[in-house]
Amino acid sequence: MPRYTPPEQSKAGQIFDIAVVVVAIFVALWLPLKMGLAGAAKSIDALDAKTWEALGQNPTMASIWEKLGYTPETAHDVIQNRFHYVIDWPTLIIMAAVLIGYFVFLFRASDREYRDVIKEKFDDK
Amino acid sequence: MTVTAESAGTAVNGDRVSLLRVLGPAHVWALGVGIVLVGEFTGWNFSADKGGALAALIVCWIVGLLYTSVAMIDSEVTSTVAAAGGQYAQAKHIVGPLMAFNVALFLVFAYTMLEVSDAILLGDTIVAKAGVEGLTHNSFIAATIVVLAWLNYRGVLMTLNVNFVITAIAYISIVILFFSVSPWTQGAVLKLNELVTPNNALPYGWIGVIAAFQFGIWYYLGIEGTTQAAEEVRSPARSLPYGTMAGMITLLIAAAMTWYVCASLMPWEYLGITYYPLWDAGKLTGSPLLENLLFVATLLAALASANGCINDAARAWFSLGRDRYLPSWFSAVHPKYRTPYRSILFLLPIALAFAFIADLNQAITFSILSGVLQYTFMSINIMMFRKKWPLGTIRRGYTHPFHPLPAIVLFCLCVVTYFAIFLGFGSQLIAMTIFYFLISVWFHFYRYKFVRRGDQFTMPWPKPQGY
Amino acid sequence: MWMALSYACWCISIVLALWMLYDWFKVDTTYSEETLTSSREGELEAVSETHRI
Description:
The complex is a heterotrimer. Chain B is an all-alpha fold. Chain B contains 16 helices and no strands. Chain B has one domain: Up-down Bundle (Amino acid/polyamine transporter I). The longest helix of chain B has 41 residues. Chains in contact: A-B, B-C.
């Protein structure tokens, strides 16, 4: 196999490639923030009675909350802000498919490139 | 006039400028533990939010197992493939170029976002301590990132000496806190049995334990960063396994102590949302001395972590440039300080920008996602490594025991962690994976044409089996 | 006091950032690009450690 000689990249091309990567990084990290996709899926289960007992806190816990500067009213939104673990099957399946698809592509494309590398490294000499 | 390397009295390696081999095992420990220890000061406690106090303890141990596997696997591969870029160079020699490109991006993302989290934590901690109207965290964030980048720019030895000292102080402060709350007697200061009761230990049941895996990762995330120093360690085959394993043991002890003290001092609902669990623990002991000690330790841990992250992210980026995966411009080494200075400078504004726009929780999640993708790769990587070069065909600095058990354990725990991330942060995971997929397509079909093929394989090994 | 600290942080950041930019410029104009990007992976492995099983 002939040795592969990569084309020389122009200065402008290099700068453009850096720009592509930077933009991609910002889009990947910033877009989920903007679209509200990032962060935890939590919501508050409101209670009417705002006492330490109703919030399920025993006297020891209550004394610590108070030491931390909370009252039952202010602690309510902290304590009742809960995750709701319902397994959303379509999302789970999409997620699994995306992940598996990504890894399969990654390993197969890598292997194709790797064979070239090994060939050039070991067969030419 | 162009000054040659020799006449400037630096860079003596033929006529080449390379990174400097100056580090010992203690620096490897400082790099690994320094990056990770901040996780005990913030982050791990969000696992209590996702599953309760007991869930946080269970994941502390199970994820400890995951990371012990990571450390074992990593020690074997990296003591054999000793090059800057760590897992990147491993992927390049074992799986292939595209994988390597992705791994380097995982590394850069995980570390840069961790650095961002550290800077935000540091800024927020100071603002919370000051309690002054109108004081924002921006100046502290900027100072953290810029000063540490400067330190990294000026040389790796000083950078990691500083890291060793501040990591040690932060670690000792956890030990001091642990022993000053008389951990052997419950009821005096610690009230574990009243705070973690059968009713609230697992408020979400067992699914909460699985969900908690996500932030359980934060107890140890970054320990694998020790491999980034491979090209700057005097004796990589010995120092890297030694420093990494010592680091892992240190962290397991710190994680257990941290959980015990915090869970015995705070209700889980508060523990799950605070940004400063150890500082709060110091406050709740009622001792101003402990409170101030833990305040300072939180700052130092954040600094040590950000410092190590700049070091690691820059090396991964540098390696990408060196192989022309990205423009080779990035592969420049400073002739005097012998650091990948352009990579350090390039990543600085990116870190700053995110530190100003993201919040702590989000930055942590980005970092965790990239970390878990990388661990998935590692479990498959070691399998391929042993298959392509079975034991005895090449010289390994360290051979990990019980193969393939650690790899299988690691892979299974990664799958559980994906599911944990799905519980609550699923859309973010999908968005990230799509990004990696698109950039992989870009690399495979366009960027790879600028890469020299055979030159990427730099290890003096025989041909892999099956090729 | 905290406000002063905050301003001090801005100053330090700016000074160090400018210094790094200055040093970067100086290095890039003093040395040739070939010298700066001459680092190669696995160099030590090939030079100092003879590879034996």
